[in-house]
Amino acid sequence: MILPTETVYGLAADAADPSAVAAIFEAKGRPRFNPLIAHVADLEAAERIAVFDDRARDLAASFWPGPLTIVAPVRDAAAVCDLARAGLDSIAVRVPGHPLALDLLRAFGRPVVAPSANRSGRPSPTTFADAIEETGVAAAVALDGGSCAVGLESTVVSVLDGTVRLLRAGGVTREEIEAVVGPLAADGGDAHRSPGRLTLHYAPEAPVRIDAEGPRPGEAFIAFGPAPQDARFNLSPAGDLREAAANLFAMLRAADRTRPAAIAVAPVPHAGLGEAINDRLRRAAGFVG
Ligand code: TXA
Ligand code: MG
After folding, report:
1. Ligand 2: distance of its center to the CA of 125 in Å?
2. Which ligand 1 atom sits closest to the C-alpha of 10?
3. Residue 283 needs a FRET pair 20 to 30 A away by CA distance; which of 135, 167, 245, 273 works?
4. How confident is the model over 33-68, as pLDDT tens digits?
5. What is the rounded CA–CA span in Å between residue 42 and residue 39?
6. Buried b (16+ CB within 10 A) or exposed e, 89-104
């Protein structure tokens, strides 16, 4: 099922059904070592499948429903099948902040896994049309929830071993999380802690050039902030990071459709949501890590 969330569109299935989950991996061309996020309707449902400590509960209370995913020890391994967890004894769980997604989760009553609906390595879809273009062919049902308000995937934090670690920057900022649980531990770089980070590229067809002052001949230019010339693409003319995050993937796709020699993107400040925006841009440009 194509499922709208406040972050990006997901390709969703019953988390307990290995053949439905296998179909998701296949439709995305996703490596099987990369586990999926279980989506549930509320904290109570999350605690039925994951073991939460006080910090996990504080985070959930502060940011759910919303763009935060918490990785915790698995409690009910059958509710989210082995394939969805990539065989790990931890589980990633979130309560999405989109009314359609919440209605669906409440009605279904069990966890739903949903990776972003893009084919593996591509930018995540933030509109219904983009989701259909990416993996719609694999879905029996598709829900149109409009454009995604956040536009970037959820922030992924791990609460394994008593420390809170940032595994993926996203829609909730580092500063917002640290205001609740104090300074975040560095991601130890352990591939097993954040398996997806090895393979994500968010890449359009055209090569991406970041921190660009302006376009070179043949390039499409994506500006940020007040642009000297009338830029066709501007993440946020006002220089607002929330607006830039919401526009990022759709604008990469739109620029790509002009079939440019490359897509040049202006520098984006690193604070707040800028951390996640720059993470996606660096990966789209081929700088992994
Ligand atoms: O905003 C989102 O999170 C979207 C919407 C649809 O909810 N979903 C999404 O899923 O971005 P996906 O599969 O594209 O990204 C999930 C990320 C991957 O980086 C994966 O490696 C990580 O979560 N992850 C899942 N389970 C994990 C685990 N047990 N330990 C560490 N990382 C995990
Ligand atoms: Mg993804």
Report:
1. 9
2. 6
3. 135
4. 999 999 999 999 999 999 999 999 999 999 999 999
5. 9
6. ebbbbbbbbbeebbeb
Total number of residues shown for the chain:
289
- Pocket perturbation via mutation, ligand 1, pick of 116, 122, 124, 165 by most ligand atoms within 8 A of CB: 116
Q: How far is the CA of 167 from the centre of ligand 2 (A)?
A: 13
Say which amino acid occupies 262.
Answer: A
Ligand nearest to the CA of 101: 1
* Entry pTM: 0.95
User: What separation in angstroms does the CA of 148 have from each of 54, 58, 145?
Assistant: 30, 26, 8
Residue 18: asked if its preceding bond is cis (omega within 30°), the reply is no
- pLDDT tens digits, one per residue of 179-189: 999 999 876 55
- What is d(CA 170, CA 174) in angstroms, rounded to the nearest whole number? 9
Name the helix (H) or strand (E) containing 21: helix 18-28
Q: Is 38 helix (H, G, I), strand (E, B) or coil?
A: strand
And the tokens for 207?
């090569």
Nearest Cα neighbor of 147 from 9, 2, 28 is 9
Cα 95 to Cα 67: distance, rounded to the nearest angstrom: 8
Å from CA of 38 to ligand 2 middle? 13
In the predicted structure, residue 191 carries a pLDDT above the cut 70: no
Q: What angle do CA 201, 202, 208 make, to 5 degrees?
A: 90
Residue 219, beta-bridge partner list: 262
229 Cα: distance to centroid of ligand 2 (angstroms): 34
Amino acid at 164: V
Which domains, ranges and CATH numbers included, belong to the chain?
2-193 (3.90.870.10), 208-284 (no CATH)
Q: Are 116 and 124 in contact (CB under 8 A)?
A: yes
Nearest ligand 1 atom, CA 171: 1
